[in-house]
Write a structure and sequence with these properties.
By secondary structure, this protein is mostly helical. Bound molecules: flavin-adenine dinucleotide.
Length: about 180
């Protein structure tokens, strides 16, 4: 084998190696396992929206014959502080103290992190749903709350159903 044939052989081997590597890596990408979400309530659909928007495939498992869980029954609204729809005077600390007071003897220090997450991330939940097109512009003060902070639409279906339908359609369209 002369030098020219040797150079061609090396070039050919390199090209074949590169093609095999590309094929292998693209094959690995296509078999990346899906995100499995159990339950099709608001928690499940919210997780599905996030996973889909991050480019993941989603498999949603639901034991009931219809999607939506308890979420589609929620009829009063979603609590959030502070939001542009509220009258002034409310605060995250007030939402936390109302939550702890309402929990009564069921409140324990180990639950403080949950109370903090609920109150501190409530505004961004309202903001996210509003950005998706859910009307949450009507605010009422309900039992257990010392300020108006329960958000729902000014018309149309009850809030849980409205949010559930929008997320269900959103995830189906994104799939
Ligand atoms: C009548 C009613 C009114 C309410 N009103 C309000 C309100 O106005 N405001 C408010 O903030 N909250 C309200 N709530 C509470 C609110 O609905 C729940 O906190 C919320 O829906 C919980 O959402 P989720 O996604 O965690 O659960 P869910 O919406 O209950 O979804 C859970 C899903 O998981 C499925 N599932 C469970 N186990 C399995 C399994 N092993 N395999 C497959 N699937 C499974 C269930 O079938 C269900 O579809 C209300 C609740 C009820 C019942």
């Amino acid at each position: 084998m002369n030098r020219r044939q040797l150079a061609l052989l090396i070039l050919l081997s390199t090209a074949i190696g590169f093609m095999m590597f590309s094929s292998l890596t693209s094959g690995l990408a296509s078999v990346r396992p899906p995100v499995v979400i159990i339950g099709s309530g608001l928690a499940g659909f919210s997780a599905a929206m996030e996973a889909l928007s991050a480019g993941q495939r989603v498999h949603m498992l639901e034991r009931a014959t219809k999607p939506g869980g308890n979420s589609i029954k929620a009829s009063s609204g979603i609590n959030g502080v502070p939001t542009p729809y509220q009258p002034p005077g409310d605060s995250i600390d007030l939402f936390k103290s109302d939550t702890i007071r309402s929990a009564g003897s069921r409140y324990t220090a180990s639950r403080q992190a949950l109370v903090d997450t609920l109150a501190e991330q409530s505004a961004s939940a309202i903001e996210w749903l509003s950005s998706l097109g859910v009307d949450l512009s009507k605010v009422a003060q309900l039992g257990g709350h010392s300020a108006a902070r329960t958000h729902r639409g000014s018309s149309g279906p009850p809030p849980g159903f409205a949010v559930g339908m929008l997320l269900a359609v959103g995830t189906t369209e994104t799939c």
